[in-house]
Amino acid sequence: MIRNKTVFGIAFLVCAVVLTSAYSFGRDTDFLTMELENVSRYNEDRIAYQQIQKWISPIKDDSLATLLIIKKQKMYLLKDGFDDVQDVQNRRMKLTIDNRQFSEEDLWTNKLNGKPDYVRVTDRRVELTKNFDEDYVSKNFGETYVKVRDAFIQRHVQIFEQLMRNRKESGLTVVREVLPVPVEKLRSDDGKPKYYISVVGKSNDGRVYFAEDADGDGVAETFSVNIPDNFNWGYKSGANVIFIYKNKEKDIEQMIGKLTKEAYFGTTEEEKNIVQTFPKDSDIIDSMIKDAIRDEPKN
Length: 299
Hints:
The chain is elongated, with a radius of gyration of 25 Å. The relative contact order is 0.12. The protein is built from ten helices and ten strands. A hairpin with an 8-residue loop joins strand 8 (208-213) and strand 9. It is an alpha+beta fold. It has helices spanning 2-26, 85-97, 104-107, 134-165, 167-170, 183-186, 250-256, 259-265, 268-277, 281-290; strands at 46-52, 64-71, 74-80, 118-123, 126-131, 173-178, 195-202, 208-213, 222-226, 242-245. Strands 5-4-3-2-1-10-9-8-7-6 form a ten-stranded mixed β-sheet, with helices on one face. The chain has one domain (27-275). The longest helix has 32 residues, at 134-165.
């Protein structure tokens, strides 16, 4: 009887650990897609970028990138992968009426391709223009969209890497944990376990930087920057500077993909510094061995 209770207790503990781990690694982050009507203020120049590439709910686009530029009280909103919610609802209704099987993800037909297909401009919330034609939007604003987006992300990646190099002062926190079962799915080809890695750092002005490799492939797919200044586009709208969630784009990966690996193993600059400042063997032998042990024991 005691043995059965022990076995049951162990099984219960294992299940609890697995479920806890699954919850820890499986949580989705709260966010709202950016809409000009919901932006809290426009009286300061700023930029915000948001990119989501994971299906979460029937009412949220699973492949959408948004660039917000606020300059001289004008708001410029560019989107890539935009699907009109009303169009999605119409597709869902039609398929339901026809009694046809469908995936909710497939209803959002427009995916990211690096070409903005949505533009809106307002001046003190008064709408000046809007256009949802990809040819028109990408032709007139596509180059600006890509250049501003890339420069913005790269600048914040540089700041994050600086926080890594000064990790003692920035209070950088790195979490690395073995991903939970099933083992056969989460082990890499060489048989080694895969690891979840997340890193958090804080800049002097209060910005919180976060990167995550959730699937253990060695590449960060989530990167966010948030500053607690109450700028938002609704309740729980998410990180208000940069929010890249579950990235699948190669050009974005080239910018953020290395962040978790650098945080855990060290940046290239940190590695070079360690190599250059590592004590010489002669110094260790002379100052720490010979000088520390002056007298040989006598027989």
